[in-house]
Amino acid sequence: MAEENVPSKDHWLPIGEIAGRSGVAASALRFYEDQGLISSRRTSGNQRQYQRSTLRRIAFVQAAQRVGLALSEIKQALDSLPDDRTPTRADWSRLSKTWRNRLDQRIAELERLRDDLDGCIGCGCLSLQRCNLYNKSDRLAERGPGARILNVGIPGEL
């Protein structure tokens, strides 16, 4: 009897319902589909429908984006799963282990930014007096555009 209440794998939902349930705009769902992150089928009226399991994939995409992964990396991770299979806790654990080093590097970068933000944002613009200590005579300009101090690490290690 309990099996009657379990949605079948073939349970399809219209794009509006998927958008409402996931909190992701329909335009973003179409973009995700264009990027190969999710897939849909078309009704006879050419309306998109998604399997219920797509909700888990969307949550997976959102979680991965929150930790700073690019859509190409997320797609690669989803491509490692069997087609149309809902990612499980074990899948997320396996994939997150492959991202752990990158996440640790990002955390360290954010901690450096937090700790140095009141002294210098690493822009090399010499607009703050303190920048003269980190980037005297604008020597970092020779290394190219952008936040050179943030890109190389701790300011004292130029």
From TrEMBL:
The keyword DNA-binding applies. GO terms for biological process: response to oxidative stress. Residues 12-80 form the HTH merR-type domain. One of its GO terms (molecular function) is DNA-binding transcription factor activity. Keywords: 2Fe-2S, DNA-binding, Iron, Iron-sulfur, Metal-binding, Transcription, Transcription regulation. It comes from the Bacteria. It comes from Kribbella caucasensis. Signal peptide: none annotated. This is MerR family redox-sensitive transcriptional activator SoxR. InterPro entries: DNA-bd_dom_put_sf, MerR-type_HTH_dom, MerR_fam, Redox-sen_tscrpt-act_SoxR, Tscrpt_reg_MerR_DNA-bd. Pfam families: MerR, MerR-DNA-bind.
